[in-house]
Amino acid sequence: MAAVNGYINNPGRYENPYFATVSHDGEIIAIAIRTPPFGLLLSRIRDLRALEMIARDYYSHFGLLPEVNAPAIESQTFAKVWCSLTGQSFKLKLALCTRFRS
Hints:
By secondary structure, the chain is of the alpha+beta class. The chain has a single domain (2-86), classed as 3-Layer(aba) Sandwich (Aminopeptidase), CATH 3.40.630. The chain is built from three helices and four strands; from the N terminus they run αβββαβα. It has helices at 2-9, 50-61, 72-86; strands at 18-24, 27-34, 40-42, 68-69. Strands 1-2-3-4 form a four-stranded mixed β-sheet, covered by helices on one side. The longest helix has 15 residues, at 72-86.
């Protein structure tokens, strides 16, 4: 969350940043951040239906999206939603894998 902290301390640091959360029953279930020139960063999403809300909101503000950085399931789901919404295509650049220790 260094980008958010950096923006709070220096609001002029990023031109046209995007910060969004989706909440349900008072709990945040999704976070999306974009600080140009970097791509959209998605958190691990607790309810993948939130990705449609983020995609629609982002598209209404910017229209173009150069890249998305997210865990594999979230990025793949977002890409499908984005393509359905915009008619654009996507290309996987790098698959991120996460491991959890129990």
